[in-house]
Amino acid sequence: MDATDRQGQAHRAGLFKTAPKKHSIGRHRSKRAIARLQKGKISANSLNVQKRNALNKTERRQRLSQIRANKSAKLTEKRRLEGDAPFLVTVVSLDNSRPAQQIVQFFSKADAESKAFESGQSAVCHLNVPRFRARFSFLCPSTFQSVLDSVRASDLLLLIWPLGVECLLSAQERLLAALLAQGLPTTINAISEMPKSGKLRETARKQLDKVMKNWHTEHKSHVYDLDTAGDALKILRQMSTGKKSTTNLQGQRPYLVVENVQLDEEHETNSPNCTLKVSGFLRGAPLSVNKLVHLPGWGDFQLARIDRILEPCPMKTANDKQKRTPPSERHWTRKLCRIRWKPNRHGQVKRKSKKTNVSRKVPKGTSEYQANWLIDDSDGTDENDEDESEEAEEEEREDEEMGESEDGKADDEQSILSAGEESEMDAGNDGDDGADEAARERFRQQRENLQWPDEVETPRDISARERFQRYRGLKSFRTSPWDPKENLPHDYARIYKFVDFKRTRKLAFAEAQEAFKTNATDEFAHPGTYVTLHIANMPRRILDFVGPSSPPLVVYGLLRHEHRMTVLNIVLQKHQFGSNAVIKSKDRLIFQVGCRRFAASPLFSQNTNGQKFKLERFMPSQGAFCATLFAPVTYPPTNVTVFLAHNSQPAELVAYGILLNANPDRIVLKRTVLSGHPYKVNKRTAVVRYMFYNREDIEWFKPVELYTHEGRRGRIKQPLGTHGLVKCVFDQPLSVQDSVLMNLYKRVFPKWDYDDRLEGTNATSSDGRNSHFEEEEEKRGERGGKTVTFLEKMIIE
């Protein structure tokens, strides 16, 4: 080693290095004085190097063996709790040349030892593969809504991608967008007829990546070939042994995909309702007979009993017809038989047959809270609907005022439409002239609201103090107080409020997990078993929607309090590939919140911090916003998708998001802006016109603060004359080109039009209205407005 290498290398101390002497200052201090001086700080020497656990080879091997055994025990316990139900696979084929039913038949013929079982009433096809010691249940939905319902309850999703296409069809793009918005289980991608040549295969792979460009990264990691029986077995092995990720909906509640539907003949009556027996494999969590169940599109129902029956597709059968001894091979006489058969008078022999199916009857008693929320449609029909009618008239009046105000403000800007705007309007409306004209009017109102937000023209036929009597001014939108219990509508007496929603959610999930620890009793049915649910008071017309070609029927078990009505707040974002239709606040939409699918008219508001939130008159095209509506309790985290349904067209995805909370105290304020023009300006003083038209209105709104577009702040000093001129004083000099504005606020509430009976009906027309609920509102009549408070039984701790 030369001199230069020695200079560049640092000296390393040896074993005999002596440590330097410590400082002698402060060595005689007490421990309390040292702790007071350190103030909780840790010496740097204790953080340098962690203490190494030096293990020898045998100890390391034992440690790895223990870790492996613990993981195996956890996996075994998880499989025991989840049961031995077949893997539920939804097959969605985007390739028109390979239908989903053909793919399932290809899987069933891939292995000679596999055995397929088909159900006559449902579209579920069972497949037992002894080679992998696994069972599969395949669903092949054909419609948009049936695909979403099937994927929501499935363990696996098998996607068959097309080959040789530049891009997907618009319907396929909408389907994939809706699937990503609602959440996906473990996804397996496959493709058929892939070229064998290396160069052609690489070209086809690049083309496929172009088609899958909008697909999520974690769901397009690997694409399997599906051309030979070996490829099919490879996919079956991956589905049976691969890691499966469950959604929040599948892990929180029990659910059952219906395979067989029958009427209960014991409770057969002539009423429109009946007791329905549905059979299938129970998945998810244990199901209690005392809890309610929910059928998407039909509503909530009670369970009469739960029967455990034999599986239609057992892996190991004790009664195998192929293994039976034929009658010709029986060599025994009656003398050797211990059982004596005595013939009757007709010469026939009577035997006592054993019953193979043993049914366990469950008590019909229901818990107290199930009947806690039962509302008669006739209750409160003639009490207070006046607020809703006044609000409807007020909204129509405001729309007219906004239209008149914009005609007076900018006639030239209204008469000019860019080519891009016209193309968007024409592309989003392909219907008749009336629907196209309504869409154009909505588009014009949305554009005016973006240019002059919340501005309305003061009416001349009615005084402003009467027109805006429900409004009030706020010194500060962020800090000014607003009582959440003030002037509540009558509908708030029909909902429930939670004192601590997070604690209630925690207790509901803990109760669901505690059911796993219980043994098989008369109350609970554990997942993995094939059961028959006796659902009481089911509408008889549900039998018309059951069949091999019908959408799958899924039964979900509800958690504690999930049948009670409350106010849900949902954070949404408009989908970029969704509908281009203009959606106003309180338009009727279809919501998929967890397992529930219902129609409601939400309020759109800003998703900001604070206790008060400004109403959005139209659904924002960018950014997150909050939708407030009446709906049953649902616990987050829950994915939410929103659809817009037309009369003659399928539902279109318009927004997606997550559930925020269930809080009726969320204050949504509707802002109305009164505008005026500076008539005469003298530095900080100005005479404003067109804001009011009589002296009494000026005196009424005198305490409200004024502001301008350029940031000036001011107040009303005094009225001038009797025709609405007002003298105002501002903090800075005012410009003649500026506008004087006044903000007024009013709290608004969502409409009570929740409907979960969506079977075979469209909830929304092209203009955002629903004739069924308009008739229901007319039947309810006008009711007087009242201030409603929560009853003690409505507040859940």
Automatic annotation (TrEMBL):
Keywords: Nucleus, Ribosome biogenesis. Signal peptide: none annotated. It is found in: Nucleus, Nucleolus. It holds the Pfam family AARP2CN. PROSITE patterns: G_BMS1. Residues 1-29, 315-414, 760-784 are annotated as: Disordered. GO terms for cellular component: nucleolus. Its main location: nucleus. The keyword Magnesium does not apply. GO terms for biological process: ribosome biogenesis. Residues 19-29, 332-363 have a biased composition (Basic residues). Required during maturation of the 40S ribosomal subunit in the nucleolus. Belongs to the TRAFAC class translation factor GTPase superfamily. Bms1-like GTPase family. TSR1 subfamily. This is Pre-rRNA-processing protein TSR1 homolog.
